[in-house]
Amino acid sequence: MPPKTAIQPTRSEDFPEWYQQVIKAADLAENSETRGCMVIKPWGYGIWEQIQQQLDQRFKRTGVQNAYFPLLIPLSYLEKEAEHAEGFATECAVVTHHRLEAHKDEETGKTKMIPTGELAEPYVIRPTSETIIGAAFSRWVQSYRDLPLLINQWANVMRWEMRPRLFLRTAEFLWQEGHTAHETKEEAVEETRMIHRLYEEFLRDNLAIPVIPGEKTENERFPGADMTLTVEAMVQDKKAIQAGTSHYLAQNFSKAQDISFTGREGKIEHAHTTSWGVSTRLIGTLIMAHSDDDGLVCPPRVATQQIVIIPVTPKADTRDAVLDACEALAETLRGHRFHNEPLRVHVDSRDIPGKKWEWVKKGAPIRIEIGPRDLESRKVCLQRRDQASNEKAFVDKEEFIQNVTDILQDIHDNLLSAATSFRDENIAECADLEAFHKHWEQDNPGWLLTPWAGSSDQEDVLSKEHKITVRCLPLDKQDEAEAPCLVTGEPTKARALWGRSY
Amino acid sequence: MPPKTAIQPTRSEDFPEWYQQVIKAADLAENSETRGCMVIKPWGYGIWEQIQQQLDQRFKRTGVQNAYFPLLIPLSYLEKEAEHAEGFATECAVVTHHRLEAHKDEETGKTKMIPTGELAEPYVIRPTSETIIGAAFSRWVQSYRDLPLLINQWANVMRWEMRPRLFLRTAEFLWQEGHTAHETKEEAVEETRMIHRLYEEFLRDNLAIPVIPGEKTENERFPGADMTLTVEAMVQDKKAIQAGTSHYLAQNFSKAQDISFTGREGKIEHAHTTSWGVSTRLIGTLIMAHSDDDGLVCPPRVATQQIVIIPVTPKADTRDAVLDACEALAETLRGHRFHNEPLRVHVDSRDIPGKKWEWVKKGAPIRIEIGPRDLESRKVCLQRRDQASNEKAFVDKEEFIQNVTDILQDIHDNLLSAATSFRDENIAECADLEAFHKHWEQDNPGWLLTPWAGSSDQEDVLSKEHKITVRCLPLDKQDEAEAPCLVTGEPTKARALWGRSY
Which of A352, A376, A407 is the endpoint of a domain? Predict the structure, then answer.
């Protein structure tokens, strides 16, 4: 019998169900009665607050400014960019009325609210804001001197998902959407690439998730984009998660919405625009990337609380002294900074059973226990979430205080290195169509890297047959030694990365 | 002829139009094509980011945690609390469909998107979230040990306003809504009052706005509340703005939504709940409270940029040296902290005419000019937005750096003291119904404080006759010397504060 784990089922028994159970046990989020929409609970929302703040700082350093645009988009805006409208049409929540009227049901005596006040033009709740932000840009941009325009919005968006899954795919989600306009193609493409690199670095340095940066094939592009760059993460069932995207929109939206300006030569030109975003999906990604059969393992930089101190108070006469020592340690630690932010430290002084395991399941990176005996020995009992749940170290308190940020960094590094090894072990190269077909018959197959010069249709055939997609054309694999394409046989330097995905 | 002002019309000529023009000149926000909804531009959104961050810190210090709840509320939730539903029914945006279908118009050849996929149960976009957060609370609260539950949400909400006005009254606005549940009435009332004091302090200490804290009469209460506390600000046309409210909801919502728990005695009890909020309306309030005929005057703690440095570069050969000096000064200043936040400093090195006036209109608290001669003299030209727009002081650069945070605090103090004097000069006491009627015949009448023991109906009659409302029963005026009520003649210790409002 394997040892009993805090989460049932385990990852190997049933990965999707394990994921739901981790979210529940760690108290991160729950489903609501609004179809496909989640409630993000404080322990989960705290992670989002960290992600938001840390990404926001990175954006601002590149000159981006935040703004806010309307939630509701007039239908006529969507109609202007046909490909875009079509891409989102099947998942739009539509507002058609602006009042309710109370009607009393004669039989039950209950009041029912009935929509009334029909709108002449319905609105959709933004699934993304290219069209409404584009309308503002067309007012703001008059001259080349107004460019580049670098805007970001933190907002909720809505896509009516048929198969919702907490954090990964919900009808409403929180995200940031950057929208920029530039004078030239070169500048817009460079912005698209710069943000793509920013996402890669953020995932690596803040979430301990190694990603494969690459370009989407035409089949997988954002509706209306000329180029979509993506960062692809592998999670523990070897599926892929598209963790962030950055789009070069060329002049497609600026022509549909008249984002035009007087250029340096005095001629009217259309701007080149970009858009890029990451969402609360990042939380789903980090859960699936790092957690174990005892619950959430949260990367330290974005943990709601980085250190939880648990007073051990078996006797009434030493209780106050232990609690005081815990509070004093917490205050000392809060004076330290990790990546320039004060440490987030919580003292759990509740008098309830089972609280130690609660913090294991909730993924606090460091747990500290202090009991009566530790007061004299000036030691603390240190437990790290990147180690086995029963592993303990008794360390000198002063030494712990001195080393605390190194320990947090070490936990981060360990998570990143484990995720990197796992990913690298599960990407195989494959040059042969027969082996390709065979690969996808496995349970939880990893990713495949193949020489690729096929058409969109050929890609589509393989995708449908195996329920896979080209996750991306990895940026650093587009100038390999020539090899025959998997389907056409044509020699190619390019490589495609295939996988199943969420 | 009075001197020409940057804003036309002036405050005394046409206050509402002056307000629109300040928003435009300061580039804070603009109307969008979505009915009644605004675009908040970077210079305005920056103020909101400061408000958010500073309020959030205050909330968290009281034990409040952030979370996020669905945008869409099932109609059935609204129906549970009849008074609440009725209060918001006339201004609800209703989602009735979840897809669009493209239809090609045979005549024009254009594609039109038509709503389809009708929902069995429509949703409203939250006008406020008592009902949907209450549904979550009913799942979360089981025992008295789960209480108090202290939750806040930063979100967008929607109320279909018929006469929108930027920041003050828009169909969509941004806000925070706190929702708490408590074991006893006493605890819930104390939470309501504590947050009320927090709002008063925040407005005074962060926005330089003095408010009158008080209780709303029954006529003016939040739909579904037993007690509504408000902070009322007077702006420069002597109208009132309700800047924030805190509601004691008794067991009204907890009974409608079954937020019940096993109490200390083992019996099932219903929680006592509160809710409280402030919104982007605060930005409208600070504009109307402090700005002048040259544009925005922004209180320093929430200014998007607190200091703008303007290089004066008349000659090419000293241009680089001046720019370098400006950047160096900015870097030095950014190392200083004002109320524990690094100073926000911008260098405007654009080569365009009129940029000095732009920063007057945008309300930057401190403007610094540095020109070639200042390099040798080691002086800077200092201009403060709380002083006349042409007032300049040449001060020693090192001295300025030493004093910069004191200057910012002094600007704050001056704004607060001017607003306080203005308000106090414009609140009159009135004990006589004839004088009361006469008062409201004036242009821009101030507020009136009157002895009050009237009924809701009597209040209603006076309100309608003069287009006024009881802004509040000021907390510190409910135990005055007995005086006869304005309408009933009955002796009363209570006082009501009347005024016109936005």
Answer: A407
Is the same domain home to B263 and B401?
no
- In CATH, what number is assigned to the domain containing residue B220? 3.30.930.10
Any chain A CB within 8 A of the CB of B440?
Answer: no
**What CATH number does the domain containing B375 carry?**
3.40.50.800
Report the distance separating Cα B235 and Cα B63, nearest Å.
33
- Residue A214: inside a domain, yes or no? yes
Q: What is the CATH number of the domain that holds B431?
A: 3.30.110.30
* B166–chain A Cβ distance below 8 A for any pair: no
Q: Count of CB contacts below 8 A, A vs B?
A: 203
Is B114 a domain residue?
no
Q: By C-alpha distance, which of A229, A192, A232, A230 is closest to A209?
A: A232
Q: Do A72 and B37 touch (CB under 8 A)?
A: yes
pLDDT reported for residue B137: 98
Would you give the DSSP letter of residue A39?
A: E
Same domain, A338 and A393: yes
- Chain B contact for A127 (CB, 8 A cutoff): no
8 A C-beta contact, residue B407 and residue B386? no
Compute CA A328 distance to the chain's CA centroid, rounded to the nearest angstrom: 36
- Is the pLDDT at A54 greater than 90? The verdict is yes
Count of CB atoms within 10 A of residue B434's CB? 8
Query: Do A254 and A332 reside in the same domain of the chain?
Result: no
Residue in B66, B69, B71 closest to A158 by CB: B71
Partner residue opposite A115 with nearest CB, options B30, B66, B94: B94
Nearest residue of B to residue A65 by CA position? B42
Which tokens in the block code for residue B259? Answer: 């937020």
Do B439 and B387 lie in a common domain? no
Residues B401 and B474 in one domain: no
Q: Which residues of A touch B96 (CB under 8 A)?
A: 94-97, 115
Distance from the Cα of B156 to chain A's closest Cα (Å) equals 8
Domain housing B197: 15-92+128-290
Pairwise CA distance, residues A299 & A410, whole Å: 11
Residues of B within 8 A of A38 (CB-CB) are: 70
Taking alpha carbons only, the member of A197, A127, A212 closest to residue A161 is: A127
**For residues A205, A208, A209 and A210, what is the CA-based torsion angle, rounded to 10 degrees?**
60
Beta strand pairing call for A379-384 and A366-370: antiparallel
| pLDDT at residue B266 in the model | 96
Shared domain for B318 and B386, answered yes or no, is yes
Query: Where is the domain boundary, B346, B374, B407?
Result: B407
- Total domains in chain A come to 3
Q: Do residue A311 and residue A225 come from a single domain?
A: no
Average pLDDT rounded to a whole number, residues B129-150:
97
Cβ within 8 Å, pair B124-A96: no
Question: B-contacting residues of A 4-23, CB under 8 Å?
Answer: none
On whether both B240 and B328 belong to a single domain, the answer is no
Q: Which two tokens stand for residue A108?
A: 């039950």
Residue of A28, A38, A69, A98 to mutate when probing chain B, most B C-beta within 10 A = A98
- Taking CA atoms, what residue in B is nearest to A87? B100
* CB of B360 closer than 8 Å to CB of B295: yes
Q: Are B36 and B164 in contact (CB under 8 A)?
A: yes
Per-residue pLDDT, averaged over A97-110, amounts to 87
Residue A136 lies in a domain: yes
A208 to chain B, minimum CA–CA distance in Å? 24
> Is B97 within the bounds of a domain?
no
- What predicted TM-score, i.e. pTM, was given to this entire model? 0.97
Q: Average per-residue pLDDT in chain A? A: 95
